[in-house]
Description:
The protein is an alpha+beta fold. It folds into three domains: 1-76; 85-138, no CATH class; 147-219, SH3 type barrels, CATH 2.30.30. It has helices at residues 3-67, 74-77, 85-102, 104-118, 121-138, 170-174, 211-219; strands spanning 147-152, 159-167, 180-186, 194-200, 204-206. Strands 4-3-2-1-5 form a five-stranded antiparallel β-sheet, covered by helices on one side. The longest helix is centred in the first third of the chain and has 65 residues, at 3-67.
Amino acid sequence: MTGRKIEERALNIKRIRLERERAVFMKLGAKIRAYLFTGILVTAPVAITFYMAYKFVLWVDRLVNQMLPPQYKFDEILPFTVPGLGLIILVVSLIVVGMFAAGFLGKFFLRLGEWIVYKVPLISSVYSVLKQIFETFFSTKTQAFSKVVMLEYPRKGIWILGFVSSELKGEIKDKFEEEMLNIFIPTTPNPTSGFLIFVPKKDTIELNMKVEEGIKFVISGGLVEPENMPKAKK
């Protein structure tokens, strides 16, 4: 074997060894990236949730502390800070107000206060809307939305997710000959904003997913998709 062939063979062996080492490092790098992304997906939602909850508790504590008289401010009475103390005071206060409002005397003052508010032109409209919203979302007798549906909107071939609030009733129902539904179309990523449309019931596809799952689906922009989501029928 000549010296040139030996040199070429040595170079080939070196090149193969370098390619194998490069492949090993590439696989190792891919695994490290996968582990990193997995760690972010696992820890980020938990960390952000706890951080937002912590900030909310501090905000409530600061707000409640500012509303208390100077001699009762808990940051001055206590030698140390107790996160969540303001939130506890707020919850207990709301419970006491609810107990008072449920009694005869409380109902009387509540009706008197509402009567005064309804006499003020601009404030009465704002109060009426806010009262209906809170009664809808916090009432134990009714649900804000009954089910999740899909419908073609804003044109044929394009499907959108909607929440059925109720069946159409009253004067608006009398204007239609077929059964209609009140459907709230939420926006992403804030499902509390959106718009109301009236849709024939036959033009909707009812889904098996729960309302909570539908809200998560909207907030995530379609990233958190419920399992066994049916496909739209043609």
